[in-house]
Amino acid sequence: MTAEHSPLLDHCPATLPAAAYYDAGWYAREQRGIWHREWVYAGRLNDLPKGKMRPLTVGGAGVILCRSPEGDVTAYHNTCRHRGSELCRAEQPLGKTIRCPYHAWSYAAADGRLLSTAHATPTEDFIKADNGLYPVAVTQWNGFIFLNIAESPTPFAPDLGLAAYDNWPMADLVTGHRVVRDLACNWKVFWENYNECLHCPGIHPELSDLVPVYREGIMSEPERPGWTPGAPTGHALKEGAVTWTLDGQPCGPTFPNLTETERKTAANFVTIYPTAFIVAHLDYARIVSLVPTGPETTRLTAEWLFSPATLAQEGFDPAKVAAFATIVLDQDAEAAEMNQRGLKSPRYGSGRLMPQEFDIHRFHGWVLDRLKDN
Ligand code: FES
Ligand SMILES: [Fe+2]
Questions:
Q1: Which pTM was predicted?
Q2: Phi, psi values for residue 338, rounded to 5°
Q3: Does the beta carbon of 254 lie inside 6 Å of ligand 1?
Protein backbone atom coordinates (compact mmCIF):
# COMPACT_ATOMS: atom_id res chain seq x y z
CA MET A 1 0.00 0.00 0.00
CA THR A 2 1.19 3.50 -0.73
CA ALA A 3 0.83 6.34 1.76
CA GLU A 4 -2.55 8.01 2.01
CA HIS A 5 -1.40 11.32 0.54
CA SER A 6 0.42 9.73 -2.38
CA PRO A 7 -1.30 9.85 -5.80
CA LEU A 8 0.45 6.57 -6.75
CA LEU A 9 -1.80 3.60 -7.48
CA ASP A 10 -1.72 0.81 -4.91
CA HIS A 11 -2.11 -1.83 -7.63
CA CYS A 12 -1.32 -2.31 -11.32
CA PRO A 13 -4.66 -2.19 -13.16
CA ALA A 14 -5.21 -3.44 -16.69
CA THR A 15 -5.24 -0.91 -19.53
CA LEU A 16 -8.14 -0.60 -21.94
CA PRO A 17 -8.40 -3.54 -24.34
CA ALA A 18 -6.38 -3.29 -27.55
CA ALA A 19 -9.55 -2.96 -29.65
CA ALA A 20 -10.22 0.42 -27.99
CA TYR A 21 -7.41 1.81 -30.12
CA TYR A 22 -8.40 0.61 -33.60
CA ASP A 23 -11.84 -0.99 -33.68
CA ALA A 24 -14.39 0.93 -35.78
CA GLY A 25 -17.27 -0.07 -33.49
CA TRP A 26 -15.44 1.16 -30.40
CA TYR A 27 -14.65 4.40 -32.23
CA ALA A 28 -18.30 4.91 -33.17
CA ARG A 29 -19.33 4.38 -29.52
CA GLU A 30 -16.81 7.01 -28.45
CA GLN A 31 -18.12 9.47 -31.00
CA ARG A 32 -21.62 9.04 -29.59
CA GLY A 33 -20.71 8.72 -25.90
CA ILE A 34 -17.89 11.26 -25.71
CA TRP A 35 -17.40 13.58 -28.66
CA HIS A 36 -21.11 14.20 -29.22
CA ARG A 37 -21.61 14.98 -25.52
CA GLU A 38 -18.55 16.82 -24.25
CA TRP A 39 -17.38 20.39 -24.84
CA VAL A 40 -14.98 20.60 -27.78
CA TYR A 41 -12.43 23.37 -28.34
CA ALA A 42 -13.25 25.48 -31.40
CA GLY A 43 -10.52 28.16 -31.42
CA ARG A 44 -9.72 31.49 -29.84
CA LEU A 45 -12.23 34.33 -29.89
CA ASN A 46 -9.34 36.57 -31.01
CA ASP A 47 -8.95 34.38 -34.11
CA LEU A 48 -12.60 34.57 -35.15
CA PRO A 49 -13.12 37.91 -36.87
CA LYS A 50 -16.37 39.82 -36.39
CA GLY A 51 -18.78 39.37 -39.30
CA LYS A 52 -17.44 35.92 -40.27
CA MET A 53 -18.67 32.34 -40.19
CA ARG A 54 -16.62 29.20 -40.64
CA PRO A 55 -17.33 25.48 -40.94
CA LEU A 56 -15.75 23.02 -38.54
CA THR A 57 -16.20 19.45 -37.39
CA VAL A 58 -17.21 18.36 -33.91
CA GLY A 59 -17.43 14.62 -33.27
CA GLY A 60 -17.65 14.04 -37.01
CA ALA A 61 -20.61 16.47 -37.26
CA GLY A 62 -20.46 19.56 -39.44
CA VAL A 63 -20.94 22.77 -37.46
CA ILE A 64 -20.98 26.46 -38.41
CA LEU A 65 -19.30 28.84 -35.99
CA CYS A 66 -20.62 32.39 -36.42
CA ARG A 67 -19.48 35.77 -35.14
CA SER A 68 -21.85 38.61 -35.86
CA PRO A 69 -20.61 42.03 -36.96
CA GLU A 70 -21.33 43.12 -33.35
CA GLY A 71 -19.14 40.32 -31.98
CA ASP A 72 -21.70 37.77 -30.69
CA VAL A 73 -20.79 34.13 -31.12
CA THR A 74 -23.36 31.51 -32.11
CA ALA A 75 -23.11 28.05 -33.63
CA TYR A 76 -25.41 25.74 -35.58
CA HIS A 77 -25.33 22.33 -37.15
CA ASN A 78 -24.17 22.77 -40.72
CA THR A 79 -27.33 21.34 -42.25
CA CYS A 80 -30.30 22.98 -43.92
CA ARG A 81 -33.81 22.17 -42.68
CA HIS A 82 -35.08 21.89 -46.27
CA ARG A 83 -33.25 18.82 -47.57
CA GLY A 84 -30.15 18.82 -45.48
CA SER A 85 -27.60 20.61 -47.64
CA GLU A 86 -24.44 21.90 -46.07
CA LEU A 87 -24.88 25.63 -45.44
CA CYS A 88 -21.30 26.83 -45.14
CA ARG A 89 -18.40 25.35 -47.08
CA ALA A 90 -15.57 27.75 -46.26
CA GLU A 91 -15.00 30.79 -44.05
CA GLN A 92 -17.10 33.63 -45.42
CA PRO A 93 -18.59 37.00 -44.48
CA LEU A 94 -21.61 36.92 -42.18
CA GLY A 95 -24.27 39.58 -41.96
CA LYS A 96 -27.73 39.15 -40.46
CA THR A 97 -28.67 35.98 -42.34
CA ILE A 98 -27.33 32.55 -43.26
CA ARG A 99 -28.46 31.55 -46.73
CA CYS A 100 -28.44 27.98 -47.97
CA PRO A 101 -26.40 27.76 -51.18
CA TYR A 102 -28.74 25.06 -52.60
CA HIS A 103 -32.31 26.53 -52.81
CA ALA A 104 -31.68 29.79 -50.96
CA TRP A 105 -33.64 29.31 -47.76
CA SER A 106 -32.44 31.90 -45.29
CA TYR A 107 -32.11 31.87 -41.51
CA ALA A 108 -31.45 34.56 -38.90
CA ALA A 109 -27.77 34.42 -37.91
CA ALA A 110 -28.60 35.55 -34.37
CA ASP A 111 -30.94 32.70 -33.43
CA GLY A 112 -31.27 30.36 -36.43
CA ARG A 113 -34.96 31.23 -37.11
CA LEU A 114 -36.14 30.34 -40.63
CA LEU A 115 -36.83 33.65 -42.38
CA SER A 116 -37.56 32.70 -45.96
CA THR A 117 -38.10 29.64 -48.15
CA ALA A 118 -37.10 31.70 -51.24
CA HIS A 119 -38.76 30.40 -54.45
CA ALA A 120 -40.68 27.68 -52.64
CA THR A 121 -44.16 28.38 -51.28
CA PRO A 122 -45.01 25.88 -48.55
CA THR A 123 -48.58 24.80 -47.81
CA GLU A 124 -50.25 25.50 -44.46
CA ASP A 125 -49.00 22.31 -42.82
CA PHE A 126 -45.45 23.66 -42.92
CA ILE A 127 -44.73 25.63 -39.74
CA LYS A 128 -41.88 28.04 -40.29
CA ALA A 129 -41.20 28.41 -36.57
CA ASP A 130 -40.47 24.67 -36.33
CA ASN A 131 -37.84 24.75 -39.05
CA GLY A 132 -35.02 26.86 -37.68
CA LEU A 133 -31.39 25.78 -37.69
CA TYR A 134 -30.37 23.21 -35.09
CA PRO A 135 -28.43 25.12 -32.43
CA VAL A 136 -25.05 24.13 -31.04
CA ALA A 137 -24.15 25.29 -27.51
CA VAL A 138 -21.28 27.77 -27.19
CA THR A 139 -19.18 28.63 -24.14
CA GLN A 140 -16.34 31.10 -23.88
CA TRP A 141 -13.73 30.65 -21.17
CA ASN A 142 -10.59 32.77 -20.88
CA GLY A 143 -10.84 33.71 -24.56
CA PHE A 144 -11.21 30.07 -25.67
CA ILE A 145 -14.37 29.01 -27.53
CA PHE A 146 -15.93 25.61 -26.80
CA LEU A 147 -18.85 23.94 -28.56
CA ASN A 148 -21.17 21.17 -27.46
CA ILE A 149 -23.42 19.43 -29.99
CA ALA A 150 -25.50 17.57 -27.39
CA GLU A 151 -29.18 18.54 -27.28
CA SER A 152 -28.91 19.12 -23.50
CA PRO A 153 -25.25 19.84 -22.80
CA THR A 154 -23.67 19.22 -19.41
CA PRO A 155 -22.09 22.30 -17.81
CA PHE A 156 -18.62 23.23 -19.04
CA ALA A 157 -16.25 22.01 -16.33
CA PRO A 158 -12.51 21.99 -17.03
CA ASP A 159 -10.21 20.07 -14.71
CA LEU A 160 -8.51 23.09 -13.18
CA GLY A 161 -5.43 21.11 -12.14
CA LEU A 162 -2.78 23.53 -11.01
CA ALA A 163 -4.33 26.76 -12.27
CA ALA A 164 -7.57 28.64 -12.70
CA TYR A 165 -5.92 31.38 -14.83
CA ASP A 166 -7.56 34.17 -12.87
CA ASN A 167 -4.16 35.87 -12.65
CA TRP A 168 -3.32 35.58 -16.35
CA PRO A 169 -4.69 38.08 -18.91
CA MET A 170 -5.77 34.98 -20.85
CA ALA A 171 -8.61 36.52 -22.88
CA ASP A 172 -6.31 39.23 -24.27
CA LEU A 173 -3.61 36.88 -25.51
CA VAL A 174 -3.10 36.63 -29.25
CA THR A 175 -2.16 33.54 -31.27
CA GLY A 176 1.39 34.06 -32.53
CA HIS A 177 2.26 30.60 -33.78
CA ARG A 178 0.46 27.41 -34.73
CA VAL A 179 1.60 23.86 -35.42
CA VAL A 180 -0.69 21.18 -36.91
CA ARG A 181 0.26 17.49 -36.99
CA ASP A 182 -1.70 14.52 -38.32
CA LEU A 183 -0.78 11.65 -36.04
CA ALA A 184 -1.12 7.97 -36.91
CA CYS A 185 -2.58 7.03 -33.54
CA ASN A 186 -5.88 6.78 -31.72
CA TRP A 187 -6.76 9.96 -29.79
CA LYS A 188 -6.55 8.15 -26.43
CA VAL A 189 -2.92 7.22 -27.06
CA PHE A 190 -2.16 10.94 -27.12
CA TRP A 191 -3.89 11.49 -23.76
CA GLU A 192 -2.23 8.48 -22.15
CA ASN A 193 1.17 9.81 -23.15
CA TYR A 194 0.22 13.24 -21.76
CA ASN A 195 -0.77 11.65 -18.47
CA GLU A 196 2.53 10.11 -17.44
CA CYS A 197 6.17 11.04 -17.24
CA LEU A 198 7.71 7.60 -17.09
CA HIS A 199 8.67 8.24 -20.70
CA CYS A 200 10.25 11.63 -19.97
CA PRO A 201 13.82 10.56 -19.15
CA GLY A 202 14.08 8.45 -22.33
CA ILE A 203 11.97 10.41 -24.81
CA HIS A 204 12.46 14.04 -23.71
CA PRO A 205 16.12 14.87 -22.98
CA GLU A 206 15.59 18.65 -23.38
CA LEU A 207 12.46 18.75 -21.22
CA SER A 208 14.02 16.55 -18.56
CA ASP A 209 17.01 18.87 -18.47
CA LEU A 210 14.72 21.87 -17.87
CA VAL A 211 12.42 20.18 -15.33
CA PRO A 212 14.56 18.15 -12.90
CA VAL A 213 11.70 16.12 -11.44
CA TYR A 214 10.95 14.71 -14.90
CA ARG A 215 14.39 13.04 -14.92
CA GLU A 216 13.01 10.67 -12.30
CA GLY A 217 10.03 9.72 -14.45
CA ILE A 218 7.51 11.48 -12.23
CA MET A 219 5.34 14.53 -12.87
CA SER A 220 5.54 16.22 -9.46
CA GLU A 221 7.03 16.02 -5.98
CA PRO A 222 4.11 14.20 -4.30
CA GLU A 223 4.93 11.11 -6.34
CA ARG A 224 8.31 10.86 -4.65
CA PRO A 225 8.46 8.22 -1.91
CA GLY A 226 8.51 9.89 1.50
CA TRP A 227 6.98 13.16 0.29
CA THR A 228 4.85 14.76 2.98
CA PRO A 229 1.89 17.10 2.47
CA GLY A 230 2.93 20.74 2.62
CA ALA A 231 6.32 20.04 1.09
CA PRO A 232 6.86 21.97 -2.16
CA THR A 233 5.04 20.75 -5.28
CA GLY A 234 5.05 21.78 -8.91
CA HIS A 235 7.38 21.75 -11.87
CA ALA A 236 10.27 23.76 -10.47
CA LEU A 237 12.83 24.36 -13.21
CA LYS A 238 16.57 23.90 -13.24
CA GLU A 239 18.74 26.64 -11.74
CA GLY A 240 18.55 29.89 -13.73
CA ALA A 241 15.50 28.94 -15.84
CA VAL A 242 12.10 30.58 -15.29
CA THR A 243 10.01 29.40 -18.25
CA TRP A 244 9.63 26.78 -20.97
CA THR A 245 11.85 28.23 -23.70
CA LEU A 246 15.10 26.95 -25.23
CA ASP A 247 17.22 29.10 -22.89
CA GLY A 248 14.75 29.11 -20.00
CA GLN A 249 14.37 32.89 -20.23
CA PRO A 250 11.09 34.79 -20.74
CA CYS A 251 10.18 35.78 -24.29
CA GLY A 252 8.84 39.21 -23.24
CA PRO A 253 7.38 41.06 -20.28
CA THR A 254 6.13 38.55 -17.70
CA PHE A 255 2.49 38.59 -16.56
CA PRO A 256 2.36 40.97 -13.60
CA ASN A 257 -0.42 39.47 -11.46
CA LEU A 258 0.84 35.92 -10.94
CA THR A 259 1.35 34.64 -7.40
CA GLU A 260 4.77 33.49 -6.25
CA THR A 261 3.59 29.87 -6.49
CA GLU A 262 2.29 30.36 -10.04
CA ARG A 263 5.61 31.86 -11.13
CA LYS A 264 7.63 29.13 -9.46
CA THR A 265 5.43 26.34 -10.79
CA ALA A 266 6.47 27.59 -14.25
CA ALA A 267 3.96 25.38 -16.12
CA ASN A 268 0.33 25.67 -15.02
CA PHE A 269 -1.77 22.97 -16.66
CA VAL A 270 -5.51 22.76 -17.20
CA THR A 271 -6.90 19.59 -18.80
CA ILE A 272 -10.17 19.65 -20.69
CA TYR A 273 -11.10 16.10 -21.70
CA PRO A 274 -11.43 15.00 -24.40
CA THR A 275 -10.51 18.02 -26.42
CA ALA A 276 -7.48 20.00 -25.19
CA PHE A 277 -4.97 20.94 -22.55
CA ILE A 278 -3.71 24.41 -21.78
CA VAL A 279 -0.44 25.29 -20.19
CA ALA A 280 0.34 28.79 -18.97
CA HIS A 281 3.84 30.03 -18.20
CA LEU A 282 4.86 33.36 -16.69
CA ASP A 283 5.41 34.88 -20.15
CA TYR A 284 3.17 33.01 -22.62
CA ALA A 285 0.56 30.24 -22.87
CA ARG A 286 -0.19 27.34 -25.17
CA ILE A 287 -3.22 25.24 -26.03
CA VAL A 288 -2.89 21.78 -27.56
CA SER A 289 -6.12 20.38 -28.95
CA LEU A 290 -7.00 17.21 -30.76
CA VAL A 291 -9.65 15.98 -33.15
CA PRO A 292 -10.03 12.26 -33.86
CA THR A 293 -10.09 11.83 -37.64
CA GLY A 294 -10.54 8.05 -37.57
CA PRO A 295 -9.96 5.10 -35.21
CA GLU A 296 -6.23 5.31 -35.83
CA THR A 297 -5.70 8.96 -36.78
CA THR A 298 -5.77 12.19 -34.82
CA ARG A 299 -5.24 15.78 -35.86
CA LEU A 300 -3.31 17.74 -33.27
CA THR A 301 -3.10 21.53 -33.19
CA ALA A 302 -0.85 23.55 -30.89
CA GLU A 303 -1.31 27.30 -30.57
CA TRP A 304 1.09 29.66 -28.81
CA LEU A 305 -0.53 32.67 -27.18
CA PHE A 306 1.30 35.89 -26.39
CA SER A 307 0.43 39.28 -24.95
CA PRO A 308 0.20 42.04 -27.56
CA ALA A 309 3.21 43.69 -25.84
CA THR A 310 5.33 40.57 -26.32
CA LEU A 311 4.35 40.25 -29.98
CA ALA A 312 5.12 43.94 -30.58
CA GLN A 313 8.75 43.62 -29.47
CA GLU A 314 11.28 44.62 -32.13
CA GLY A 315 12.44 41.48 -33.99
CA PHE A 316 10.24 39.13 -31.94
CA ASP A 317 10.02 35.66 -33.50
CA PRO A 318 7.20 33.50 -32.07
CA ALA A 319 8.56 30.43 -33.87
CA LYS A 320 11.73 30.67 -31.76
CA VAL A 321 9.68 30.61 -28.57
CA ALA A 322 7.61 27.74 -29.92
CA ALA A 323 10.74 25.76 -30.79
CA PHE A 324 11.11 24.28 -27.31
CA ALA A 325 7.60 22.88 -26.97
CA THR A 326 7.63 21.81 -30.63
CA ILE A 327 10.64 19.58 -29.94
CA VAL A 328 8.72 18.01 -27.04
CA LEU A 329 5.53 17.73 -29.08
CA ASP A 330 7.30 15.97 -31.94
CA GLN A 331 8.94 13.55 -29.51
CA ASP A 332 5.52 12.77 -28.04
CA ALA A 333 4.03 12.39 -31.52
CA GLU A 334 6.68 9.86 -32.47
CA ALA A 335 6.16 7.96 -29.20
CA ALA A 336 2.39 7.90 -29.70
CA GLU A 337 2.70 6.51 -33.23
CA MET A 338 5.17 3.89 -32.03
CA ASN A 339 2.71 2.95 -29.27
CA GLN A 340 -0.12 2.65 -31.80
CA ARG A 341 1.87 0.32 -34.09
CA GLY A 342 2.88 -1.92 -31.19
CA LEU A 343 -0.54 -2.34 -29.67
CA LYS A 344 -1.79 -3.77 -32.96
CA SER A 345 0.28 -6.89 -32.42
CA PRO A 346 -2.06 -9.91 -32.50
CA ARG A 347 -0.51 -11.01 -29.18
CA TYR A 348 -1.33 -7.74 -27.39
CA GLY A 349 -4.70 -8.00 -25.66
CA SER A 350 -4.20 -5.36 -23.00
CA GLY A 351 -1.36 -4.06 -20.84
CA ARG A 352 -0.81 -3.12 -17.19
CA LEU A 353 -0.51 0.32 -15.66
CA MET A 354 2.26 1.13 -13.22
CA PRO A 355 1.60 3.02 -9.94
CA GLN A 356 2.89 6.29 -11.45
CA GLU A 357 0.26 6.01 -14.20
CA PHE A 358 -2.56 7.06 -11.85
CA ASP A 359 -3.71 9.79 -14.24
CA ILE A 360 -4.02 7.28 -17.10
CA HIS A 361 -6.11 5.05 -14.83
CA ARG A 362 -8.32 8.04 -14.05
CA PHE A 363 -8.58 8.83 -17.78
CA HIS A 364 -9.59 5.23 -18.55
CA GLY A 365 -12.30 5.50 -15.88
CA TRP A 366 -13.46 8.74 -17.46
CA VAL A 367 -13.72 7.09 -20.90
CA LEU A 368 -15.45 3.91 -19.69
CA ASP A 369 -17.90 5.91 -17.64
CA ARG A 370 -19.06 7.70 -20.78
CA LEU A 371 -19.38 4.49 -22.81
CA LYS A 372 -21.60 2.75 -20.26
CA ASP A 373 -24.86 3.55 -22.08
CA ASN A 374 -23.31 3.16 -25.51
S1 FES B 1 -31.40 22.20 -48.97
FE2 FES B 1 -31.18 24.21 -48.24
S3 FES B 1 -32.61 25.33 -49.35
FE4 FES B 1 -32.81 23.34 -50.10
FE1 LIG C 1 5.87 13.49 -23.36
A1: 0.95
A2: -65, -40
A3: no
